[in-house]
Design goal:
Length: 442
């Protein structure tokens, strides 16, 4: 640190010490006389020194420091003024010994959650693989392929219409792509200590019985295969505790006026006078008193505790959060190397197989073995992929998506495009006129 800046810091610290009492209270005697409960105001603050907010903008220290000798003094002044502005204190964290201990919830804490994995899935003893029947899908025609190309070009403003109108279709190769999807509807649970103001509501305390384990508490989703969440108070875990934030008083010292009930007038800086046209005049904001009533506590010097909301007591309990969500995996078979699989996933097709079970059986008798292999791989992955979650229901679907590879000739260009899905989407990465030179809006 430079020597001159170090000296400036020492000078500021010395001046702060000399003017500390003045900056804290310009009228110490009248301030004490105004507080009807001086002892209780001090007693309810466990850290009286830390809760004092020094307002340097009201102190003679400002007049000394605002005569800048160096740039360092101005920076220090700005730092002190910024850090001394009163701010509403955040609620303090509860002490660790505030919450009780219950069997099955030893790792539950405030601000964090933990739930052991659910019990392993046990299939029913008479579980047998159901029959699997598959429907057939249809392919598209040449006219549908040409119409699809016209629609594709019209959706791209800079694509020329000439190739679509003049192309000669040489061959149409119909085929089908197969989209297999596996959806696992899973349930996860977590627990966390919570508290809320106690207003006399019923308390389900441990005297009513032992707390049930997290995975035994009943909870049902509003709809299967629909993401949702609910919060449940764990039975027999509620207790009444004194508020840790206000020490069971219900209120705290006002953070703006530090319990005085008034603040120095910012217009006249506490003097009661302001500069007039010819001479100093009485300040109209404070009526010449030099101070105004605190607008935070309305002159009472204390504010309601934001943790217990003035109730002085808290209800503590364990909150169980149950979350339902879908996990989806896809497997596409039958596309060429040129047609991206994600296009098949988003396209319209014919559902040729669908099944919903607590645990589905992999498809095993479809004529395309790649579908059978992909189904078994995804079913095996889902069975062990989320050990902390419970699979409630699984759904597997197989869709057949028609795909036609169209070979065409336009002038000297020989190329191809693909028409896929019942919505006749087109994939034409090599379309001849893709720039503005063939733009149909020019």
């Amino acid at each position: 640190m430079p020597m001159d800046l170090h000296q400036d810091i020492n000078q500021v610290n010395l001046r702060l010490g000399l003017h500390l009492n003045k900056a804290m209270d310009p009228h110490p005697l009248s301030s004490r006389a105004m507080d009807p409960h001086p002892l209780s105001s001090r007693a309810m603050d466990p850290h009286p020194l830390n809760n004092k907010h020094m307002d340097l903008s009201m102190s003679p220290l400002v007049e000394e420091l605002t005569d800048p000798h160096t740039q360092g003094q101005m920076c220090l002044l700005r730092m002190y003024l910024t850090t001394s502005l009163p701010k509403a204190p955040a609620p303090s964290a509860p002490p660790p010994d505030m919450f009780a201990h219950y069997s099955g919830y030893e790792n539950t804490q405030y601000g964090s959650s933990f739930v052991p994995p659910p019990p392993p899935y046990v299939p029913p003893p008479s579980s047998q693989m159901p029959e699997q029947h598959f429907q057939q899908s249809t392919a598209i025609t040449d006219e549908q392929a040409r119409d699809a190309m016209f629609q594709f070009v019209s959706e791209h403003c800079c694509y020329g219409k000439a190739p679509a109108q003049e192309m000669e279709i040489k061959d149409v190769v119909p085929s089908s792509a197969y989209h297999y999807s596996l959806t696992s509807f899973c349930e996860s649970r977590k627990t966390e200590w919570k508290y809320e103001p106690y207003r006399g509501q019923p308390i389900d305390s441990p005297v009513n019985g032992a707390a049930p384990p997290p995975w035994i508490i009943p909870a049902q989703p509003s709809q299967m295969f629909s993401d949702s969440q609910t919060k449940i108070e764990v039975p027999h875990t509620a207790n009444i505790k004194p508020c840790h934030d206000c020490l069971a008083v219900g209120y705290k010292r006002c953070y703006k006026c530090c319990g005085r009930g008034r603040v120095r007038c910012s217009r006249c800086q506490g003097s009661g006078l302001v500069e007039g046209m010819e001479q100093r005049e009485q300040c109209t904001d404070c009526i010449g008193r030099g101070w105004k009533m605190c607008d935070i506590c309305n002159g009472h010097g204390r504010v309601k505790c934001c943790t217990c909301l003035g109730q002085a007591q808290l209800k503590t309990f364990i909150e169980l959060t149950v979350k339902w969500e879908n996990h989806v995996s896809n497997h596409v078979v039958g596309t060429t190397d040129h047609l991206p699989p994600e296009l098949i996933v988003k396209s319209e097709g014919t559902e040729i197989f669908s099944q919903e079970l607590p645990r589905v059986w992999p498809i095993s008798n479809f004529f395309n073995q790649q579908v059978n292999v992909g189904s078994k791989r995804l079913v095996d992955e889902h069975s062990n992929k989320w050990p902390a979650k419970r699979i409630l229901l699984q759904r597997q679907q197989l869709r057949a998506v028609p795909v036609s590879e169209v070979h065409y000739q336009w002038k000297e260009t020989s190329s191809r495009f693909w028409v896929y899905g019942h919505d006749h989407k087109v994939y034409a990465p090599d379309y001849p006129q893709q720039c503005c030179c063939g733009c149909n809006i020019l």
